[in-house]
Specification:
10 helices; 4-stranded antiparallel β-sheet; globular; 8-stranded antiparallel β-sheet; Jelly Rolls; 311 residues; 14 strands; alpha+beta
Length: 311
Amino acid sequence: MTDLFDHLIHPHVENIYNSDYQDKQPLHIKRGCATYFDQFLTVEDVIGYLGGNNTYPNIQVVRDGQEVAYSRYTKDEDIKGYRFNQVIDTDKLTEVFTQEKSTIRIFQAHRSMEKVAVMCKSLQSLFCCPVQANVYLSPPESCGFGVHFDTHSVFAIQLYGNKKWKVFDSAFPLPLNGEREPPQEFTRRVARAKTIIDCSLETGDTLYIPRGYLHEVCTEGQPSIHLTFGILHRNGYDVLEHLLSNKNSLSLRKALPTSRYQQDSFDSYKQEVLGSISEMLDKQWSQLIFESNSDGNKGRNFESLHNMFKI
């Protein structure tokens, strides 16, 4: 099988991505090949998963930026003698999807879809950081979320149909995990933003959006399925937090040279501390590498959505 990352950015190559795009600017790759990602994940895989015995929150529904109450599309059910709560009711889910223009989200699909888990592990081995994935099924003429930015970088791949993406300038500079602007500042950022990418992501296309870039996604005249990979890059603060969790360094245990008779000692103290941190970083670098495992399961036929996506 082709290397996933090479496949994602083709015809670009890794060193060009690293130098020109990562954390710097978005990238839209148009291919005109509807089967481009089929060796990794197909529409049949997605629809089949939705037909399985799934529960909330693995499957969620969103509309206009808000999550729809799970009681609208779940039920309690006895499965093999056990009572389960919040089981997805496929009939209700299809009704919410088709009649209310709501988007179905397979949340953290790497935890429950085996093929998605394999893809995420491939990207984790490359980036040496956590990689998460969501799958979105959207009805025609709908918007699941408004204008927003993510605190992780995103690769979006289109699996079925097309989706309208707008990416704006005025990016929040390299946000950290969970970081958000105060509402007033975010509103001002959106108001002054100018569109830098306005594209229809077609089946087989890739779109890379660095963290912090404002974007908006809507469908047009047909339903859409796309998958997003969230790349949670490590940063310098992660390194410092990791190093500071180790309190065995004698250099860092020493009292700061703050007394009057030690005022000329700061430079030597600083060099000792920096040397100690450098040594700790060399020893503990491998512990900063993220590694995870995901379990997959298989679904059964989900007839109504099969018809919607013409499978």
